[in-house]
Specification:
The chain is an alpha/beta fold. It has two domains: about 35-205, Pectate Lyase C-like; about 235-350, Nucleoside diphosphate kinase-like domain (Alpha-Beta Plaits). The chain contains ten helices and 16 strands. It has helices at about 1-20, 25-30, 155-160, 190-195, 205, 245-260, 275-280, 285-290, 305-320, 330-350, and strands spanning about 40, 45-50, 60-65, 70, 80, 90-100, 105-120, 120-130, 135, 140-145, 175, 185, 235-240, 265-270, 295-300, 325. Strands 1, 2, 3, 4, 5, 6, 7, 8, 9, 10, 11 and 12 form a twelve-stranded parallel β-sheet that branches. A four-stranded antiparallel β-sheet has the order 14-15-13-16, sandwiched between helices. α6 packs across α9 (about 305-320) and α7 (about 275-280) runs antiparallel to α10. The chain starts with a helix and ends with a helix.
């Protein structure tokens, strides 16, 4: 009897030993996250933040801060800013939403996918937003165009999947308007940015190399919502290839040296369908290049901007095996093409 039980126990042990080891899953291998590393709270009169490579696409929280300067030099998933007052806050490229709640007397510079405020007052926001920014129960809000540079910023935009050419900073939707009152206004002169946004002073954050110089900014400066009216306007489109983004940036730099009063009203990066391209170009000539990938479009204003743009585009196209830049050819069709393109782009970005 005892021998039989011993044999059964031995067989059971062998069966147990033959079993596969427990399965492991991807979430078991993730590095444990300390929430404190991605939270700044309860500070007053301090200069704090995070250096490049310390957030790496995590969610972030800023809350209950007063009279402080906060710099987040990295790309982020989503971020909330709650109960802050008299603060200067820099927020690096944020894939998802930036939500400001119960804040007042702050200066914010941020790039994000979505932007929303609730119960905020007297805020200066220098913004790049991929979608339409929304304010709710907020007053005395001022908005301007995001303008900044530091060496890792371009890479952070790429990692956050934020296009520097899709900027709706001035297209504000007031969710709770008050009849006879205006809850927000735009800052048309970028000099206001230098006046109200302060650069870091501590050695750690100063060493990042943050600059507010418009000529260095990763994001092209744009005027935003006001219509171009009677000014000379031209539509410039960069067709997709491996270097079309850099080509657009170089074109902007060169155009501004050629036309001293040149400004960009709007810029967009969007994928066009062939049928929509034919409505804009009024020809099927560009169908093949349109099908290769998204395009970048600039609506540029200024005296002589069409002639200067055409000359630059001719030089660029002559050095390529195919047409890489399109510029509206005359003032008679320019406005119609501009309206057709940006109507399509606005519709595509709202889907």
């Amino acid at each position: 009897m005892g021998c039989l039980q011993s044999k059964e126990k031995e067989e059971n042990n062998q069966v147990q030993g033959d079993k596969d080891p427990p399965k492991t899953y991807s979430w078991d291998k993730r590095e444990k996250v300390n929430p404190a590393d991605f939270t700044i709270e309860n500070i007053s009169g301090q200069e704090v933040g995070r250096l490049p490579g310390t957030i790496n696409g995590q969610q972030f929280i800023i809350q209950n801060c007063q009279s402080s300067k906060i710099y987040l030099f990295d790309y982020i998933n989503t971020i909330t800013v709650d109960d802050c007052s008299d603060c200067i806050i820099f927020i690096g490229p944020t894939t998802g939403s930036l939500f400001l709640r119960d804040c007042h007397d702050c200066v914010i510079m941020a790039a994000c996918g979505q932007f929303r405020t609730r119960d905020c007052c007297k805020m200066d926001v220098f913004l790049l937003c991929q979608t339409q920014p929304i304010i709710e129960a907020s007053t005395k809000m001022r908005f301007g165009c995001f303008q900044a540079y530091y060496p890792q910023l371009a890479d952070h935009f790429t990692k956050a999947k934020i296009s520097i050419f899709n900027n709706n900073w001035s297209n504000i939707h007031d969710f709770t308007p008050v009849e006879g009152e205006t809850n927000w206004s735009s800052v048309s002169q970028n000099s206001a940015l230098v006046e109200v946004f302060k650069l870091p002073k501590s050695e750690d954050f100063k060493s990042v190399g943050l600059s507010l110089d418009t000529n260095m900014s990763i994001v092209p400066y744009s005027l935003g919502s006001p219509v171009y009216g009677t000014q000379e306007a031209t539509l410039i489109i960069f067709f997709y290839d491996a270097s079309y983004k850099q080509r657009a940036i170089n074109f902007i730099t060169l155009l501004r040296t050629e036309v001293t009063n040149c400004v960009i009203q709007h810029s967009r990066e969007v994928k066009m369908e062939v049928a929509d391209a034919q409505r804009v170009f009024r020809t099927s000539e560009y169908n093949s290049v349109i099908s290769q990938g998204p395009v970048i479009a600039l609506l540029c204003l200024g005296n002589g901007v069409m002639e200067a743009s055409s000359a630059i585009a001719a030089q660029v196209n002559s050095s390529s095996t195919s047409q890489t830049v399109y510029v509206t050819s005359d003032s008679n069709t320019s406005n119609q093409q501009i309206d057709a393109f940006f109507s399509y782009a606005s519709m595509s970005m709202s889907l």
